[in-house]
């Protein structure tokens, strides 16, 4: 089994020009996700980890996050989208098709 | 298939106190890995991506990197270790047991 059951990476990279995840509140929404996961007691080995990452080169789909080991990529707009990914995918193992890219 | 065949995350987080990956040249060695992967033309969709990541909470094993979707974790000390991971794992799909954690 993977060290983390769900290892989530938010691109929080900032580009000076063109599309980038940081232009879409990625850092604030990653921080929100990390706090929610902590409050739900989902954090830790065999459970979840939410990390910042550099540019994952899917800028035009941004903001993006990826959930490993599944390798499911999502885009999101706001806290409600993040909540849905946490509730559906991280708590119940169900892919959120409407946000999947 | 995963968007990236191998998605590699180097912890490059810096902690003010205690063990941390940044104290072990993690940023320089991640930059080296990224450049090597580029020179070997391994970069791109269905191929490889090498990213920085925040603290992955395995500080005492650091410096660490993880290769997804396999979820194989490695520690490394120098460019030779990074070269071995690239050559064995990313080019030939073989886990480097001596560096695995």
What is the helical fraction of chain A, as a range of percent?
25-40%
Query: From N to C, what is the helix and strand string of chain A?
Result: EHEEEH
What's the CATH C level of chain A?
A: Alpha Beta
Assembly type of the chains comes to homodimer
| Biggest pleated-sheet summary of chain A | 4 strands, mixed
Number of strands of chain A: 4
Q: What would you note in describing this structure?
A:
The structure is a homodimer of 101-residue chains. The first copy, chain A, has helices at 26-39, 79-92, and strands spanning 6-11, 48-53, 64-68, 72-75. Chain A is an alpha+beta fold. Chain A has a single domain (6-99), classed as Glutaredoxin (3-Layer(aba) Sandwich). A four-stranded mixed sheet of chain A has the order 2-1-3-4, covered by helices on one side. In chain A, strand 1, helix 1 and strand 2 (48-53) form a beta-alpha-beta unit. The longest helix of chain A is centred in the N-terminal third of the chain and has 14 residues, at 26-39. The N and C termini of chain A lie far apart (25 Å). The interface between A and B is medium-sized, with 20 and 20 residues.
Name the features.
4 strands, globular, alpha+beta, Glutaredoxin, 2 helices, about 100 residues, homodimer, about 20% strand
In short:
Two copies of one chain form a homodimer. Helices cover 28% and strands 21% of the residues of chain A. Chain A is α+β, with helices and mostly antiparallel strands.
